[in-house]
Each structure stands twice: as structure tokens, then as C-alpha cells.
Design a protein that fits this description.
A: 232 residues, six-stranded parallel beta sheet, four-stranded mixed beta sheet, 7 helices, B: 55% helix, 10% strand, elongated
């Protein structure tokens, strides 16, 4: 190895040498002519969503059901807190983990006083987080076309909070619902410009596996349950 | 599986013979694949226009692969600017050594891995274990295969060939757990054991499904959340990725992720699709302090240098071509003896590991084209198998075979001589049983598993002549009766 980068120059040299002979494009994208980026057309080919908020919501709700995510529409923060409280007693939670944020700062004081809160901001003990019964996070966006929740390390309590505790609760507003991944990426680009968070993750349903006989099992390593509390 | 010392071709033949008649195994594979097929058909049908989506996906990959140098450099620049480290490895040894040296320098003791076929490709686990590190595979299927001491059976469904009772027996033997025939209980056993692995590991190792040039990110697709934990908790992260995985823009994933999910498992979107742009950034809550990306060539540039088959590097490793392949269904994954099984593996392995040693894989195809049809990025898979066969013969002609073809052509161009020679066919048929299936048998490769058809006493030409004469006679008789 010739430098800290390893065989950088040798590999790039081989790549350039190999690419001296062009390869034909066998499947030209039908609508990429006219200089427009292909990205603009993805929507025409992928599963349809519908332009109105109602249609987006209907599809998101339908996919959530198929994915076994639990979608609860809440009138306000007080109802969201009440939903968490009833989940807490049903699953006998002792400690929940959460992070600081516009919605969560208002929600946290409304949660049951007997429920201990671990706030991950500024660092946490990983064993303590592992012992938590649930993790509550905000999210960047909800994606109608795929039924996904988009979290980032910037606004959802880092990388681990949304995946380590056995029950993940997302608190979101209806205005965060976007049509598809294309709109999600555009929206993230507009928000962060070149300074993206170090993790962007599209969470589509609770953790799952089909590794044993292709039979669906939830909660392989990540959360067994994913609850989405949707505020107006 | 057969021993390593055996030549790949012999190992393939032995294992194919054995597995093709293993009804239990074939039933397990068939059942798993029929569940896959139902899901894929259902999800594929929700696309407005799958074919145009496929052309667009192919166009994106074509752009990336044909400007690989530009996009790799762009990725490196962006990723490094955010505190990531990029290492370029020409071959397996360089990649292994980099990871081993890094682990030694940081005083690593235990390592947790999420699924990485590149790890299998460079034989990373044996090297790490030999150096004294604890290594745990965290993907459920990979974990089961690790406990079993076997390579993955399928690069997307690593233990699809195992029945639940076999997995239960394995867990009982290796982990001391009680027997169960419930897949959920089996999954929960693995969950309990592996939770500690994430917390205790000093280093996480993953693969990567896409490298995003314009934002300097690594994209990882998974269902279980094990990769999220592997990239989130340990202090050091290493992603080991083939150089061909690059795509130009983050927005390209808006198409590629749904297509990977649909083709791979029949999902709209895989459970977790995560894009990582470097280590923990200032002000962030958690994440690794160091994030290394090892870009692996390992003969990918050899395939790149073949413009005819360059599109094989467009592969997004969804595994769809394995799932529809009649050969894979019959001989199973281990028979291939390769890291990448099935049709796409048969195309690329000869480029990676030597055409003469691996050309037999390109022969193991019915050329039905189901692989090409199902491929979400439109790789011309079954024609590449033919091209491998052609290249193998051009590179190393088989003199005896070409002599036979020359004699055949000589004969076919001379009808009189052909007619004369075909008179001897019935005689050959009579004598053949004397040497059939012995070393003297010239068609033994055929007669080992099939009957050799015997030549009829009368040739087609003489039968046709007689038939025509009969017909003419009948017509003239009819005419006479009028």
C-alpha cells in the first residue's frame, strides 16, 4: 500500500483505463430526454399517491396497517400524552427515553409523573438506554407512498434512540406528511442545504425479519412496536 | 459442502448431483420462494409503470458506472470533509489488513457485524477470529449461518434452506435454549443474545447498498434494525463496500430504494433505509467517533474493462434473479461455491476469480431468461452467460471439440457422404451398449444421467421418400377410381 489512502491512484488508474471504451446504454430512460433530471419523473412510474392531503393520509393509514405500525390520530398534545399513558400502563413501563425538541418539550411535562424520563441529549449511558421500555422521538417527515417515518440524527434524538428501546413512539404533525421519497429528499435538501445530519433513516414499520422460512416476525433487533401519534 | 482443495468444477458437479435429489432441502427452498413470489407480484403490481422505472434505474447505474472515477472522487471529497476516512483496497488482503491494523491500533476486543457480502468475499471473519477478536454476525440469517459454521445460502436470504426445527436444534446445541417450533420464539432468542453484542462491541462493521456521491453518504438497507444498531452504538465504524455501488445523487435513491425492496423481498420499502454521512458531527447526541469506508476493487475493474458485460456492475444485489432461477431452485446456493450465487454470480464470478476455473457456472443455465426479465436494473444476465461461454472457448480453445465440429460441418456440406455415413448409425447403436458408461464411451457425460437415443434402422430420408411414394400412389389410385 503506497499511502494512507491505500491503493487510491492504482484503482482510479484502472478505472480510467477500463472506461476508455464506452459501454452502450441498453435501457435508455424513456422520459429522460430534454435535459431534465430523471428524478423529476420517478413519480410517474412508482405506486400512485394522489395529490390531496386526504389521499396522502388515506394511503399512509392503509400502509401503516399493512406494516403493523399503529397510527393514532390525536386532537392535541393532551390526547397524545393520554395515549402514551395508556400504552405505559398496558405494557407496565418504568422508564421512557426521549430527546429535546419543539413538540417533546411540551409533551414531556404532560406524561405520567410515575414514569421516569431519560433524556438522551448531551450523551447517555447505553446500558440505561437499553433498559428503557420505550423511546419517544419527533421525526422529520412521514412518507405517504411507503408508509415510512423519516428520522435524522439532528431532530430525532440521535442515531440510537429510535431503534434500541422495544417500543418506538413517534410524535408528528399532519403537515409533515409528504407524497414520496422524492419529496422527502427535496424537503431535507431545502432544510439542511449542504449540512446534512450524519444519519437520515426511513423507518418503514416495526423491526422485522423473514429469515426463518420467510415467515414474518416483528421485533428482530429493533422495536417490536411502532406507534405514530399524529397531531393536526 | 465439499472440501476447498477440490477444483471448483468438480465441487460444483458433486454438490449439484447431491442437492438436485435432496427433496427435503428443495421443498424448504421452494416454500420460501413461493412466499417471496406472492409478495413480489403484489407489490410490483402497484407500480404505475415498472418498465419505465426499470429503464430509469438502469440509466442511473449506467451513468454512475461509466463515470466511476468522477463519482468515487466526489464521494471521497464530501465524505472526508465531514470527518470520514476513505481507504481504497485493490484486493482482499489490503482490505483485511486495513481493518486488522485499525482494530489493533484502537485496542478493539469485540466486533459486531451487520450483513456484508463484501465481508464474505474477502473472508474477513476468519481473519478477525484468527487475530483474536470476537466477531458476531447480527443479521438473524447470518447469525444462524455463523453458528452453523456455513456460508450464506443466498446473498439476501442467508438461511432460507433451513427448517425451523433445524434452527431450533442448532440454538439448543450452541446456546442451550429449549426446543421450539415457533419462528417468533426463535427470533427472540437471537434478539436476547445479540442485544449485548451491540452494547459491548468496540467496533461495528457493515456493508453498504449505495454510495451517494453528491452528499458523501453510505446508504444501508435492512429490515431488522441490526445495521442501525451496528452503525449507531460502537465507537468505531467500518463500512466495506464495492466500488461499483456509487450513485450520483441522493435523490436517485427515491427510485432505487423502492425498486430494491420490491425486487428483493416484495416490500414497498425495506424496514430501515439509512444514509450515513460520516461519524458523529459536532452537536450530535451519539454515533461513532470514527467512520471508515473501505472501497473494494478486488477485480471489479476487470469486469469494468469489458464494455460488453460492464452492466453486470449495475447489480444492486436484490437477489431476484436467484429467486426465479430454475437452476438455483434445483441445485441450491452452496453448490455454486461462490460468494454471489445464482445467475448474477455466474456472470461476475468468472471475472473476479478467473474464467477458466469458473466457466462451468455459465454452463449451468437453461437460458430461459427469467433472470434478465426480473432484474430491476435490466442487466442482460442470460446473454452474459453465453458471452462467458464464448470467451472461455476463445481464450482456451478445446481442440477435440473443435475437431468434432469441423468433421460435422464437413459431413453436413456433402449430402452424398452424409447419406453414406448415416448408414453406419444403426451399427453404432448396436455396438454402443458394449462400452456405454465406461471410460471408452465417447458420450459418457450424456449417458451418465440419461439414455442415449438409438439410431433407427431406416434414415429419415429413406422414410420420407417411402412416405412420399405412398402418397403419390394413393392419389393416383383415387384418380383412377374416378
Amino acid at each position: 500500500m503506497n499511502s494512507q489512502n491505500g491503493d487510491r491512484e492504482a484503482i482510479l488508474g484502472r478505472v480510467r483505463e477500463a472506461l476508455r471504451v464506452p459501454a452502450p446504454l441498453k435501457h435508455p430512460a424513456e422520459r429522460s430526454a430534454g435535459g431534465e433530471p430523471t428524478t423529476a419523473h420517478f413519480r410517474e412510474w412508482l405506486p400512485p399517491v394522489g395529490p390531496s392531503l386526504d389521499e396522502k393520509f388515506a394511503l399512509f393509514a392503509k400502509l401503516s396497517e399493512t406494516l403493523r405500525s399503529e397510527l393514532i390520530v390525536c386532537a392535541d398534545l393532551a390526547q397524545a400524552a393520554a395515549e402514551i399513558s395508556s400504552l405505559s400502563s398496558a405494557e407496565s413501563w418504568k422508564t421512557i427515553a426521549l430527546h429535546r425538541g419543539g413538540l417533546l418539550d411540551k409533551l414531556a411535562p404532560l406524561l405520567p409523573s410515575g414514569l421516569a424520563q431519560l433524556c438522551v441529549d448531551g450523551g447517555y449511558d447505553k446500558n440505561a438506554l437499553e433498559a428503557c421500555d420505550a423511546g419517544i422521538t419527533e421525526c422529520e417527515l412521514l412518507v405517504a407512498q411507503t408508509g415510512s417515518v423519516c428520522v435524522t440524527s439532528d431532530n430525532s434524538g440521535g442515531r440510537v434512540l429510535s431503534v434500541l428501546p422495544p417500543h418506538h413512539i413517534v410524535i408528528a404533525r399532519q403537515t409533515q406528511l409528504v407524497t414520496d421519497l422524492t419529496e422527502a429528499y427535496e424537503s431535507l435538501a431545502a432544510k439542511y442545504r449542504a449540512n446534512y445530519p450524519s444519519m437520515i433513516s426511513f423507518i418503514t414499520g416495526p423491526s422485522r425479519t423473514g429469515d426463518i422460512e420467510r415467515i414474518l416476525v416483528l421485533g428482530a433487533h429493533g422495536p417490536k412496536r411502532l406507534t405514530i401519534l399524529l397531531l393536526p | 459442502m465439499s472440501t476447498l482443495a477440490e477444483a471448483p468444477r468438480d465441487q460444483f458437479q458433486t454438490d449439484a448431483n447431491r442437492t438436485a435429489t435432496d427433496d427435503v432441502r428443495r421443498l424448504a427452498v421452494r416454500r420460501a420462494l413461493s412466499n417471496y413470489q406472492t409478495a413480489r407480484n403484489r407489490t410490483g403490481a402497484t407500480f404505475t409503470d415498472w418498465k419505465s422505472a426499470r429503464s430509469a434505474a438502469a440509466t442511473i447505474k449506467h451513468e454512475a458506472v461509466n463515470h466511476l472515477d468522477k463519482y468515487l472522487e466526489e464521494f471521497e471529497r464530501k465524505f472526508t470533509a465531514r470527518g470520514g476516512k476513505v481507504f481504497w483496497a485493490s484486493n482482499s488482503e489490503q482490505a483485511r489488513n486495513y481493518i486488522l491494523e485499525l482494530a489493533a491500533a484502537r485496542g478493539v476486543r469485540s466486533i459486531v457485524k451487520s450483513k456484508a457480502m463484501t465481508g464474505e468475499e474477502i473472508h474477513l471473519n476468519p481473519a478477525l477470529l484468527a487475530a483474536g477478536y470476537g466477531v458476531v454476525e447480527s443479521d438473524l440469517g447470518e447469525y444462524i449461518q455463523q453458528l452453523k459454521g456455513e456460508a450464506p445460502y443466498h446473498f439476501v436470504f442467508p438461511c432460507m434452506h433451513l427448517r425451523r426445527d433445524e434452527i431450533s436444534d442448532l440454538f439448543e446445541k450452541e446456546l442451550g435454549t429449549a426446543k421450539t417450533d415457533n419462528p417468533e420464539e426463535l427470533t427472540m432468542i437471537a434478539r436476547r443474545v445479540l442485544r449485548r453484542a451491540y452494547i459491548d462491541a468496540d467496533m461495528g462493521i457493515s456493508g453498504g447498498n449505495f454510495i451517494v456521491a453528491d452528499t458523501g453518504m453510505v446508504s444501508i438497507t435492512e429490515n431488522e434494525g441490526n445495521a442501525r444498531l451496528t452503525v449507531g452504538i460502537p465507537k468505531i465504524h467500518v463500512a466495506l463496500i464495492g466500488i461499483e455501488k456509487v450513485v450520483p445523487c441522493l435523490g436517485d435513491l427515491a427510485l432505487l430504494l423502492p425498486m430494491l425492496a420490491t425486487a428483493g423481498t416484495g416490500q414497498h420499502l425495506t424496514g430501515y433505509n439509512s444514509m450515513y454521512g460520516g461519524p458523529r458531527q459536532p452537536g450530535e447526541t451519539d454515533g461513532p467517533e470514527e467512520f471508515h469506508v473501505v472501497l473494494l476493487d478486488n477485480h471489479r475493474t476487470r469486469l469494468l474493462a469489458d464494455p460488453e458485460q460492464r452492466d453486470a456492475l449495475h447489480c444492486i444485489r436484490c437477489g431476484a434473479c436467484l429467486n426465479v432461477c430454475p437452476i438455483f431452485k434445483n441445485i441450491g446456493g452452496h453448490t455454486y461455491g461462490t460468494t454471489y450465487q445464482g445467475p448474477i454470480g455466474s456472470v461476475i464470478t468468472p471475472h473476479f476469480r478467473g474464467l477458466q476455473d469458473w466457466k462451468h457456472l455459465s454452463g449451468a443455465s437453461s437460458l430461459c431468461g427469467a433472470c434478465t426479465e426480473t432484474c430491476p436494473v435490466g442487466i442482460d444476465i442470460h446473454h452474459h452467460l453465453l458471452r462467458n461461454r464464448r470467451n472461455a472457448v476463445q481464450e482456451k480453445p478445446a481442440p477435440s471439440e473443435s475437431l468434432v465440429w469441423k468433421m460435422f460441418a464437413f459431413l453436413m456440406r456433402r449430402p452424398a457422404l452424409y447419406k453414406f455415413a448415416s448408414r453406419f448409425a444403426p451399427l453404432g447403436s448396436m455396438l454402443h451398449p458394449l462400452i456405454e458408461r465406461t471410460a471408452l464411451d465417447p458420450v459418457r457425460a450424456w449417458t451418465d444421467t440419461r439414455d442415449f437415443p438409438s439410431a433407427p434402422l431406416r434414415s429419415f430420408r429413406s422414410q420420407f421418400k417411402a412416405h412420399q411414394a405412398q402418397k403419390a400412389a394413393a392419389i393416383s389410385q383415387k384418380g383412377g377410381a374416378k
